[in-house]
UniProtKB/TrEMBL annotation:
This is glucan endo-1,3-beta-D-glucosidase. The keyword Coiled coil does not apply. One of its GO terms (cellular component) is side of membrane. It catalyses: Hydrolysis of (1->3)-beta-D-glucosidic linkages in (1->3)-beta-D-glucans. It is found in: Cell membrane. Coiled coil: none annotated. InterPro entries: GH, Glyco_hydro_17, Glyco_hydro_17_plant, X8. SUPFAM superfamilies: (Trans)glycosidases (SSF51445). Keywords: Disulfide bond, Glycoprotein, Glycosidase, GPI-anchor, Hydrolase, Lipoprotein, Membrane, Plant defense, Signal. Residues 1-30 form the signal peptide. It is a lipid-anchor; GPI-anchor. GO terms for molecular function: glucan endo-1,3-beta-D-glucosidase activity. Residues 372-434 form the X8 domain.
Amino acid sequence: MAAYCNSIAKLFKLLIFFTICSLFVHRSTAAYSIGVNYGTVADNLPPPAQVAAFIKDQTTINKIKIFDANPDILRAFANSGIAVTVTVGNGDIPAIAKLPAAQSWVANNISPFYPQTKIDRIAVGNEIMATSDKNLIAHLVPAMKSLHSALKLSGITDIQVSTPHSMGILSLSDPPSTGRFRRGYDRVIFAPMLEFHRRTKSPFMICPYPYFGFVPKTLNYALFKPNHGVFDKATGKNYTNMFDGQMDAVYSAMKKLGYGDVDIIVAETGWPSAGDPNQPAVNLENAVSYNRNLVKHVNSGRGTPLMPNRTFETYIFSLFNEDLKPTTSERNFGLFRPNFTAVYDVGILRNGQRVGSTPATPTAPASDPNKKWCVPKAAVSDAALQAKHRLRMRLGGGLHAIQCGGPCFEPNTVRSHAAYAMNAYYQANGREQFRL
């Protein structure tokens, strides 16, 4: 009997050992979840249906935020399980402050897609306080209330209403305990807004960007790299990264108004992977450091010094590099290029996929630094591209790569196939523009 009990005890210990081991193995290989801002200021992005399939099948991104209510995007994410935040355009805010217009907006932009598309939040405008437009600012909270009422009247009770804010809403933020909303707006705008959030159990949305707040001596502090930290004498808390400092500054401002219990989510944050020559801190290495550490940090559940053990819903800016943005840095905030290759890996690729730290923008092969590529202009119609494509097929051969089953068949669109055919002909004929 004693031998039997000893055997059972040994078996039980082994079972515990292997269970613990399996937990550690699972944790070490688990990918992180994160939200992303899906911006579309570009003329080379893939169709929304392909974007939805890519996010669902190839990444652990579980929520997206868009800057409008694009019906093609909303249709594409139907039945995907991906949560979607849609945005009311800034210019629509004064109108939807009145209930009939808000009801019309919901009928046109939400009801046709919900609940097949998992719309979980509506952002009323984007960083309205930063516009300094008094008309928009005055109508912001009424529009939020009106839209919430319109949703309820439509029988929709699980879509939250909020609005994103830049860090410019604070008059003080350093050290974090001094955080305070701008005078004049604190009681008139933010107190009633936070009361709305408390009543509707919706979050206060902020856009903390250490990228916009660092100076050379605080670069490591902004990038989650080793640094001496910033000590807040009032609270006795030491801050080792600027993200936590910005978050706690907002929390301090909310608490001063009596709303420290309202949830906070990060509507935007990020770091560009390429910039102009006068931006030495804007490079691939720093983008990797910020975004990769950010993803780990917000998934850790550690919270911040003033908000410990809290997890913050976070949206990185942005999903893709957007080529129509005005500056180099603005065009290079993306985690992915428009062809779905990763600019760099932040730990959100499925099935153990990894990518190296590849350049943020395509570079020509070392053997030919002057190599150019031929791509169609955005304004050219599909019909014109189809005609040009057929001509190139006759002149330049069969181009098996874009035929069904070929390695470049997908995406199966006129623009994609025409671009391949035109570029193949261009490269094969000495890259002479007059022959196109």
